[in-house]
Design goal:
about 525 residues, alpha/beta, Nucleotidyltransferase, domain 5, Ribosomal Protein S8, Chain: A, domain 1, 3 domains, seven-stranded mixed beta sheet, four-stranded antiparallel beta sheet, 21 helices, 16 strands
Length: about 525
């Protein structure tokens, strides 16, 4: 189900009821970009600690924005069955406020979205507004001071506003007090923004929504206008303006209050955008970010970390994409002795996902994500009990078998395997690092070293000293291959990195210790000679 600004307000009460009844919710996001290439050394690297990666990702999250958020709400019925309501929310930053919002597009990301049929018109013209707490506080201040403005128009385009103003200004010159006119064919967000713009532009008009996409405009005296503005029946009260401007943030807060398990796939960037766009700007501190996310969502499950475990414990083919994992879990008889996996049924409004694959549509990927979680958890539960599982296992039983993966989010190519949002991050066991000693090849750069080894395998490169570089890989076979092939290279001597031998700081300390020891020996010898 695709949801834009026009229909969002009507959907919100129903969404709230479904989330409160849900066993868990799964999400996925599409962005205007992932990693900013305009920032130096911003590419993810195996050398990155979690804190270093966070700094890089934070810069990218601040430059890019969300275009679509998919939410799949999984509700358990009495039988061994989960019903899924899946939504695609098109999002666009709130334009109702004093400060305009700027964001960046990555050409490759736009091509990627276009290839998979993303509706850019829906994003631009009918995107649901949103704001974080800082932006909301600024808007509140301007609403109280009467200095707010519409920065630009996404939900109501400029032509609609101009047409409304032209109609009213043409009519009002000949109209008498208490005369009325009707503006028609306005969607939900037009209804609010047209009223706000008219009231700000003309002090002798009053507006009221009539329903059925209509707004009544009435000519009034300034005194009557003031009385009406202070009335409790005003449909453009400041709290309603704020509610409208917050848009999707209202749903985010429902999710936070519901405290349902939140499921995603490779979800670090998703969590960072959730924090930045709907909660607060990302803090500088990595640890503070972790604490904030854990407070917002105490139970997080990343299906990437779960499926890694399934691949190790079960005879599971090594596949990478979420769609491939889903296909394997659906088609393979990985657990022939145990009870059947729960039935996962799409609600009537989402049935096209059962008939047609829609990869990289956020609502579809959220549905895949939740389905992979249920099937993986069922498989792990059966394996842990040798098939002695209830015919209708509860979701709490699945959470118990998934306990080791809860709050551990996959960390792509870095110093840890996962980020632990409820504890310390455990270090990752990488293959040994290699050190390259360059001889007779002056001026070699990290980029040139990377290109040299790229043809054989992928290494991340970091300069160690003037003539030495460290190589890191996440595959043991690549390490063995390079050690073998470069054994007799005329210019590049490759060996396993030993900290005590190759670290510049250790070498410097040894040199200083040697000098101090030498001076001590000389002083002792000279002192002894004098005493003789």
């Amino acid at each position: 189900l695709g949801v834009g600004a026009e229909s969002f307000a009507r959907c919100l009460p129903r969404l709230r009821r479904r989330i409160l009844r849900a066993a868990f919710v799964a999400l996925d996001m599409e962005f205007t970009g992932l990693h900013s290439t305009s920032l130096q050394n911003n590419e993810p690297s195996l050398f990155d600690s979690p804190a270093e990666r966070y700094v890089k990702a934070r810069q990218s999250v601040q430059r890019f924005t969300l275009v679509q958020l998919g939410l799949a709400i999984f509700s358990k019925e009495n039988s061994n069955k989960y019903v899924v309501h899946s939504y695609n929310f098109f999002l666009f930053p709130s334009t109702l406020g004093i400060r305009d919002v700027e964001f960046t597009f990555s050409a490759s990301s736009i091509q990627f979205l276009s290839h998979y049929g993303f509706d850019f018109n829906k994003f631009l013209k009918d995107g649901i507004p949103y704001m974080n707490e800082v932006q909301e506080k600024i808007l509140k201040q301007h609403l109280l001071a009467g200095t707010w403005k519409v920065c630009s128009t996404s939900c109501a385009d400029r032509d609609v506003l101009k047409k409304a103003i032209d109609e009213v200004t043409s009519w009002i010159t000949a109209a008498k007090e208490e005369d009325t006119m009707i503006l028609q064919d306005l969607n939900d967000y037009h209804v609010l923004e047209v009223q706000l713009v008219l009231r700000q532009a003309l002090e002798n008009v009053w507006t009221e929504p009539l329903g059925d996409k209509k707004v009544m405009v009435k000519k009034v005296s300034p005194e009557q206008r003031q009385l009406l503005e202070n009335s409790s029946y005003d449909h453009c009260q400041k709290k309603l303006i704020l509610l409208s401007a917050r848009g999707f943030t209202n749903l985010f807060q429902i999710l936070v209050k519901a405290k349902k398990p939140l499921v995603g796939h490779n979800m670090l960037m998703d969590l960072m955008h959730l924090h930045d766009k709907f909660y607060r700007p990302l803090p500088e501190s990595y640890e503070e970010f972790k604490r904030n996310i854990h407070n917002l969502f105490p139970v997080i499950i990343d299906t990437k970390t779960v499926t890694k475990s399934v691949q190790k414990k079960c005879l599971f083919p090594r596949v990478s994409s979420l769609l491939e994992v889903y296909a394997v879990l659906c088609s393979s008889n990985l657990n022939p002795k145990g009870p059947p996996c729960p039935v996962i049924a799409l609600a009537s409004g989402c049935s096209r996902y059962a008939e047609k694959k829609s990869p990289h549509e956020a609502g579809y990927d959220a549905f895949l994500c939740g389905s992979v979680l249920l099937m993986s958890a069922h498989l792990l539960l059966c394996r842990s009990t040798d098939g002695a599982v209830d015919t209708e296992p509860s979701f709490s039983q699945y959470l118990t078998v998934l306990a080791e993966h809860v709050n551990k989010v996959n960390f792509i190519r870095g110093g840890v395997s996962s980020i632990n949002f409820s504890g310390e991050d455990a270090p990752c066991r990488h293959p040994p690092a290699l050190v390259v000693h360059v001889r007779g090849w002056p001026g070699l750069t990290e980029r040139q070293i990377y290109q040299e080894f790229k043809a054989r395998c992928r290494f991340d490169v970091r300069r160690l000293s003037k003539n030495q570089f460290i190589l890191l890989s996440n595959k043991h076979k690549h390490v063995r291959l390079v050690l073998r092939d470069y054994r007799h290279h005329p210019h590049l001597q490759v060996s396993v990195y030993r900290h005590w031998r190759h670290s510049p700081s250790v070498n410097c300390l040894l040199q200083i210790s040697g000098i101090v020891a030498l001076w001590s020996i000389l002083a002792f010898a000279l002192g002894g000679a004098r005493s003789c």
